[in-house]
Design goal:
With 297 residues, this protein is α/β, with parallel strands linked by helices. It folds into 2 domains: 2-155, Nitrogenase molybdenum iron protein domain (Rossmann fold), CATH 3.40.50.1980; 166-295, Nitrogenase molybdenum iron protein domain (Rossmann fold, 3-Layer(aba) Sandwich). The protein is 42% helix and 13% strand. The protein has a 5-stranded parallel beta sheet, with helices on both faces. InterPro entries: ABC_transptr_periplasmic_BD, Bact_iron-sidero_bind.
């Protein structure tokens, strides 16, 4: 009965509409877009995962599992911060998808065709992720496929939430430009603690999008049982540096290092953010880390 009720609640959550935009889109007759341009890396990920062709995209950051988009078969449409409006218009798209970095161009791009803002930002990451994924999936007639993918991800989330609270406190770190930044429950990566029920090693609730610059000695002082480490530069296609930086005598004294619970997160998936495949990779890696720690206490 408990599993049945949980499943029902999940389906209700997945069918919730995020905002007025999503409600309007759901009410409109759905016609499969033939030409799509996306200024959101996460949306590119989701459309690719659902098997929906995309003709225009920001090629600069189409790396790793999205590298197939780095060829002349696709139109490069500028950057997230500076879209090439002429190139987008030349595609004559039926749908333009934007994200947080390109949201300010919505009005301008709406002069070309329908624009969907796929942004996921702020609190309630997983609820936003579910709702925005479904809204986009409806636009491309892939709602059933999206629900299947989201349900599988939610099952992994539930598994993490059942394990993590009893496995010690964690600290999320981002390595960027040779420096280390700590992210707390109120930060943009706070969903790791909040949505996955992972206890935080720090009590600071001051919000910061870019994290708090910290030293190795500070990390040692908060005694984290887990370190979840994201190499931001590697996620942008630059040389990986986090592992070398974090392998030092001070970090070696932390409970996380001594318990072999330093987890180097997939940099590209975390850079993509809220794409279907990216989130699946991210949650799977965290779940695997906890499961492996149970096997090797």
């Amino acid at each position: 009965m408990h599993k049945f009720l949980t499943h029902c609640v999940l389906i209700l959550l997945l069918m919730t509409r995020h905002n007025v935009q999503a409600a309007e889109l759901a009410a409109a007759p759905v016609q499969q877009p033939q030409t799509i341009a996306t200024l959101s890396l996460a949306a590119l990920d989701t459309l690719d995962t659902l098997g929906v062709p995309v003709q225009g995209l920001v090629q600069q950051y189409a790396l790793d599992y999205l590298q197939k988009y780095q060829n002349d078969s696709y139109q490069n449409i500028g950057t997230f911060f500076e879209p090439d409006v002429e190139a987008i218009a030349a595609l004559n798209p039926d749908l333009i998808v934007i994200g947080p970095r390109s949201a300010k161009f919505k009005k301008q791009l709406s002069g070309i065709t329908e624009v969907f803002d796929s942004s996921v930002w702020g609190g309630g990451f997983f609820q936003q992720f579910h709702e925005q994924t479904l809204a986009l999936a409806r636009l491309v007639n892939k709602e059933a496929e999206a629900i299947n993918k989201l349900t599988a991800i939610q099952q992994k989330v539930s598994r993490v939430k059942s394990i993590a609270p009893e496995r010690g406190k964690a600290l999320v770190l981002v390595v960027r430009g040779g420096k280390v930044y700590a992210f707390n429950t109120a930060s943009r990566l706070g969903w790791v603690y909040q949505d996955l029920a992972i206890p935080s090693a720090i009590d600071n609730t001051e919000s910061s999008d870019h994290g708090q610059l910290v030293s190795f000695e500070w990390i040692l002082s908060v005694h984290p049982d887990w370190l979840f480490i994201l190499d931001r530069d590697a996620g942008l296609g630059q040389a990986a540096a986090a592992r070398t930086l974090m392998q030092n005598a001070v970090i070696a004294q932390t409970p996380a290092a001594q318990k072999n619970q330093m987890v180097y997160l997939d940099p590209y998936a975390w850079n993509v953010g809220y794409g279907l495949t990216a989130v699946d990779i991210s949650i799977s890696q965290i779940l695997d880390a906890y499961l492996n720690s149970e096997l090797n206490p």
